[in-house]
Amino acid sequence: MQTITILGSTGSIGVSTLDVIARHPDRYRVFALTAHSRVAELAQQCRQFRPQVAVVGSAAAAKELADLLREMGLPTQVEYGQHALCAVASAAGCDTVMAAIVGAAGLEPSLAAARAGKKLLLANKEALVMSGQMFMDAVNENGATLLPIDSEHNAIFQCLPQSFGRAPEDHGVAKIVLTASGGPFLRRDVATLEAVTPEEAVAHPNWVMGRKISVDSATMMNKGLEVIEAHWLFGAPAEKIEVLIHPQSVIHSMVSYVDGSLLAQLGNPDMRTPIAHALAYPERIASGVEPVDLVKIGQLHFLAPDFQRFPCLKLAYDALNEGGSTAAVLNAANEVAVQAFLDREIGFRKIDQLIHRVMDRLPGRAVSGLEDLLEQDREARRLARDCLIA
Ligand code: NAD
Ligand code: MG
Questions:
Q1: Could you report the per-residue pLDDT of 257-292, keeping only the tens digit for each?
Q2: What's the average model confidence in pLDDT over 189-217?
Q3: How far, in Å, from the CA of 197 to the mean position of ligand 1?
Q4: What are the structural domains of the chain?
Q5: 227 pLDDT band (50/70/90 cuts)?
Q6: Dist. CA 387–CA 390, nearest whole Å
Q7: Residues with C-beta less than 6 Å from any ligand 1 atom
Q8: How remote is the CA of residue 271 from the centroid of ligand 2, in Å?
């Protein structure tokens, strides 16, 4: 029996994780569930999955949740705040942690799970992008098992020989090929992009996801963050990580070997496949996802990415090449810009312009530890907000 903490259980990944878990009550038990503000949904999840602990974002939300749980007659203990998130991510009562909080808010709890040597299922790519080497060191020094949930990285993991962490060259890997759908604006006239609405930007052609990652997919910053994520997970240098646009999202990514072999993982675009893979690894369990019908799909299409249309992808490669805290600065500026776009404060093209400005003004530095990283993150956010007003 595996006991699981789900950080961000009310989000898109959290709900898909609970869907897979509910199919296998003999294998998985929920230890803790966490949500930021969707208290009613969290209470319903508590009713179904009976966790020992539930964590929310504020004292007011905690009171509201405790009242609801009392009415339901549930004994679930209610906590709130970052400290409580770190506690349930590292508690002795759980052996597996699904890190599915969106953005930098997930860094400390994800890192706490790594430091506690948990089996860590990582969806929260921003945490790894920000902390890079620090995160991988925490995994390696504490015997944690890191399994990628991002569909691309999960696909690459499945296509690599299973000895994680060694240099890819050792296995004859020539290149990692990250596939990208190109998002909703792949074929839209670039001149009209500034005027797109948040509703258009979050309407992803293949995947149903949270709002932040949906906007990231429209700018292709999501793929940029994934390039950085792949660098840390698989120890591959930037020049060995290639992005390929594949609008159908059936091939989730590929690994190219020096002998000419190209290995791919295919599946319907449904996150329950990588979630089930990581939950059961190295075994396989049913996820509820239909098998791919290649006859129905008929053809698969590919094209090269265009940096003019998607400048965020180029900015992410630049951040990876610069090193230090540059990726954390890029991530912070992106989080501020995406929120401002969703709040209709700025147009779509201002997202990449704002990130570019922040990166120009705040060159990355060496990172001396978690506190320093969090301070650099705050500094980048302050600057990004100043640039929004200016
Ligand atoms: P979402 O917005 O649907 O859910 C986010 C979850 O995080 C919610 O449970 C929310 O309560 C919680 N949360 C938000 N802000 C918080 C805060 N400040 N403190 C604590 N908790 C907070 O997002 P999602 O689409 O499920 O994505 C989650 C993560 O997984 C992201 O990092 C995303 O990049 C990654 N991811 C998602 C998908 C997908 O298909 N949705 C695919 C690959 C990777
Ligand atoms: Mg992905």
A1: 999 999 999 999 999 999 999 999 999 999 999 999
A2: 94
A3: 21
A4: 2-148 (3.40.50.720), 151-268+293-307 (no CATH), 323-390 (1.10.1740.10)
A5: very high
A6: 5
A7: 8-14, 35-36, 38, 57, 100-102, 105, 123-126, 150, 207, 209-210, 213, 271
A8: 9
